[in-house]
Design goal:
single chain, mainly alpha, 3 helices
């Protein structure tokens, strides 16, 4: 097992720096710092909402594309089966069952 003491000492230095800064802040400094954090949180929330809306749009577009693709493939399969079914399948039971499973899927 390898221990990395460099990371822990850097973490300690960072912690000490934060503690020192927090001791040196005045009430006005705290208010300004709090406003900065609130603004940053608000910006992150807005960005998150924007990304959520973009995702919804992309998912809807993907769903429309999927439906169009399924419709096209189903139509091509129906055409192919109707043209070649008599020569390929003397008994069309298999074709009918196959097509009905395609059209019944959500």
């Amino acid at each position: 097992m390898v221990l990395d003491n460099n990371n822990s000492s850097e973490g300690e230095r960072r912690r000490e720096r934060v503690e020192n800064e927090s001791r040196s802040h005045s009430p006005k400094g705290w208010a300004l710092e709090e406003e900065k954090w609130k603004f940053q949180a608000e910006m992150l929330r807005a960005e998150c909402n924007l990304l959520r809306m973009e995702k919804e749009i992309a998912v809807k577009k993907l769903e429309r594309t999927r439906v169009k693709m399924e419709t096209t493939l189903r139509s091509a399969l129906h055409t192919l089966v109707s043209v070649s079914a008599p020569s390929l399948f003397p008994s069309s039971y298999f074709v009918i069952v196959f097509i009905s499973t395609l059209t019944s899927q959500p």
